[in-house]
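Example 3.2
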Amino acid sequence: MTTPTPVFYDCEASDLEGYPIEVDWAFTDPGTGTLVSESHLINPPSEWPVKESWDRAAEKLHGIALIQLWRDGRPAWEVARRMNAMLGGRELFSDAPQDEAWLRLLFDAADLEPTFTIWRTDARVLTSQAAADSGLDEAAYARAKALAAEMAPPTSCGGRCSQFGGFMAYRCAGNSGIMIAAGEKVARGPRPDAVGGPMRYEKADTILRIALDMQGTAEGLSLEDIQRRYSDQPLSRRTAERLRDAIERVFPQMQQANPGELPKRWRLPTGTVSGFAAVSAEELADLAAGVTLLRRENMLVQAENAERAVSKLRALMRPDALTRVAPDLEVLTEAEGIAMRPGPRPRIDPDIVATLRQAILASRKVELHYKYRGSGKTGYDIVRPYGFIYGNRHYLVAWSENEQARDFRNFALSNIERAELLEKSFIRRRGFSLQEYAERSFGVFQEEPFDVVWKFSPEVAEDAKEYLFHPSQQFEEQADGSLIVRFRAGGGLEMCWHLFAWGGQLSVLAPKKLTALLNDHLRRVAAANAAISLGARGRSTRAGRSASKNV
């Protein structure tokens, strides 16, 4: 398993010769690079004369009021036990010599012995030496310090303003993850209301993700991109501006990618944040799961390309980083299985997919030799390929030049027998969106969209809420516990196929043509099964007669 990283802790006290009133610590998960921290106010035990020794000048510095300790603090024994549980077997470092004495007072009051080791090496010496050993020059180390100031989160005790005393981050050479070290004091900020508990540095993670994307794109990122891409819910414009400004403070090399144009877009030069791009075991395991999913969905060309990308990524990692993540990667890979899903698995020629991709990139026409599923006949069509849609079957979306079509059509990849790249180019239709085209339908089959209203019974309403039936769906909870779902899409046949899965727990309220189509399918299924049942009874009767003759 991975080697534990150093833990950096900080104590606040009632006064320089007083008693501890708060303890904070932080460390890095070496497998993920995630920064984890906790902060706990301490409710002074009765034997500590904190009230008598309270220093008002110190209160102005640490921002903790005595009443907060009595109201929000945890007993000394509880904080000490928490430290042992979280930090047992680890090595602790601080940037202040008196922190050790305050920590000893805490454990004496709890009548416990620390299960961790307290080092007297100044954390600033540790980090500067580690930076030198990793080959970081002064500029890189300065950037890491600036990043630490942006990363430093508010700690978790309620109602006051304070940050972890002196954490600065630097990136060790190679893909070894971000390391947290105690150092210079950083800006103080408001704390959330929760007391204690782990805190993860979502803001730091977001800053790094944006910075990596700024380096990884030639066209740069706009404020709208930042608002959209880095949160489950769109960020406010002001938040996006703060994130951009934070990146500029950490990486002054940031430049506008499109001077004189709107909207403004920013990027970072190649190599600016490469030292911060650590790859974790979890990320590699997720990529491996993605490859497995691609294979399950019969996307073999994409699976092979993804596997090559993973191999290239691992080849870029330093040997020590690979050695560190290998055990965790093996455990995670073995612990994650992909469920089998019934569905068609027709063979798709990878050479045809490669030809179609080349045509899409170059905007060149293609002559398709295609086997029609209904008739089984083979014909050919000159098409303008736009992209692919993946579902139970995978399709090429292309504009057909056939006189009877002259529109976008879906061509099943498995039915394309040959694809010839033509020298003729075409101009893509302005404003065409493959995503919008796909969203016109419930599945893959294209037809004119219509308004759909379904009602789910109270027994399955909670399950239905977890489904994405269509991007335009709207839920309406009913007083009796049932659920109405509304959306607009085509693809009535595929809707019927899906509706069968809900049995008698779903009714179609609109449109009438969908109800009629569903009823027609139900009659066909019932008739087919009735015929099978009659045949089985006939065979059973004949077998009985035959048996009686043999008696």
